[in-house]
Design brief:
By secondary structure, the protein is an alpha+beta fold. The protein contains 14 helices and eleven strands. The model has no long low-confidence stretch (mean pLDDT about 95).
Length: about 325
């Protein structure tokens, strides 16, 4: 199988852009329920994997050991904006682990509250590792190392016991063997893994299930509850995961990843979809995600209204003129 056109953009009635990709819809039993394109496409998970990377910490009682709140469990899964609320949570997480900012090995970048929206930060702005969108995940990595008396300096090394535990649990969550996960290094310098798209969807179907998991106990339930209760911490003001989870009213667990990856799990329906836009176009990714929800029958009228801006069917220019359209051109197939 190969990728298929998912979203087309027209200008003046003429086709201008075509965005190809693939979709996999999977239930909690690991059964492929629907797809478009190639549901087996080997996909780097990027930030969608964060909730699964937190599994060793949850399974060994890390949040209880340090007194992490549900808000801070949500931060383990976050690709956050670097807003004050995010920085405050990560600072407190590090304080509880007896560590300072410089222990973080995620690096520093302009916070997403600026870069994601193509806005320039103030000239006098000063940022550090706390503002990195992955700092909550890294604070959890460090806390695990403190809890288990592991070295801190190389905690992101692929051979570090923490990263080996993560690889093990990510594989368990998606029903693979650890050695079958293809490794690369993510933007925050931690190992990241590629897997068939349907496997990623399966992991999120389990994550969103909200029940005791035969392998992971209540770890999935703790993570998904924190994410759906505190979606503003998982992403931030103006971001799609916040909008998706609010529209889901506690029923949807949503996580975007860099370079065109989106996963959404539905607790009530016991299923999740994973989507990859090959050219990583963000507008196409969001529009395709909402269309998947529509075709799966997830949306009521209020939810359609809430997510209409993410579909962005008309393309509006700087003078508020409609100059084109963005439209879905795929239909989900059943195996």
């Amino acid at each position: 199988m190969s990728h298929t056109p998912l979203i087309e953009m027209t200008r003046g009635g003429t086709l201008e852009n075509q965005h190809f990709g693939s979709i996999a819809v999977v239930n909690t039993h690991g059964q492929l329920r629907a797809f478009a394109g190639d549901p087996h496409w080997l996909t780097f998970t990027r930030s969608t994997i964060k909730a699964l990377q937190a599994l060793p910490f949850l399974e060994t009682g890390g949040p209880q050991y340090f007194g992490f709140t549900p808000q801070q469990i949500a931060m383990l899964c976050a690709s956050h904006n670097g807003e004050d609320m995010h920085v405050a949570q990560v600072t407190d997480m590090l304080d509880k682990a007896g560590l300072g900012t410089r222990a973080l090995r995620c690096g520093c970048h302009v916070p997403l509250r600026f870069s994601f929206f193509d806005k320039a930060p103030p000239n006098d702005a000063v940022f550090d590792e706390l503002h990195n969108n992955c700092s909550g995940k890294h604070a959890g990595f460090l806390a695990y190392c403190v809890q288990h008396s592991l070295p801190l300096d190389d905690y992101i090394g692929p051979d570090h016991p923490l990263q080996q535990a993560i690889r093990r649990d990510v594989a368990r969550a998606v029903g693979m063997q650890p050695d079958d996960l293809k490794m690369g290094i993510d933007g925050c310098s931690a190992p990241n893994y590629a897997m068939p798209l349907w496997r990623l969807a399966y992991g999120y179907a389990r994550l969103a299930n909200g029940a005791q998991d035969p392998e992971m106990g209540d770890s999935f339930a703790q993570l998904s509850s924190a994410m759906t209760t505190h979606p503003d911490l998982v992403s931030g003001t103006g971001r799609n995961d916040l909008a998706f989870m609010r529209a889901g009213r506690g029923d949807w667990v949503s996580k975007v990843g860099a370079d065109g990856v989106q996963v959404v799990g539905n607790t009530r329906r016991g299923e999740a979809f994973a989507l990859k836009i090959i050219d990583a176009n963000k507008s196409a990714l969001y529009a395709a995600s909402v269309e998947v929800m529509e075709q799966l029958g997830w949306l009521d009228n209020a939810q359609r209204d809430a997510l209409q801006a993410w579909r962005a069917i008309p393309i509006i220019n700087a003078r508020s003129l409609m100059v084109g359209e963005r439209r879905a051109v795929f239909s989900l197939q059943t195996p």
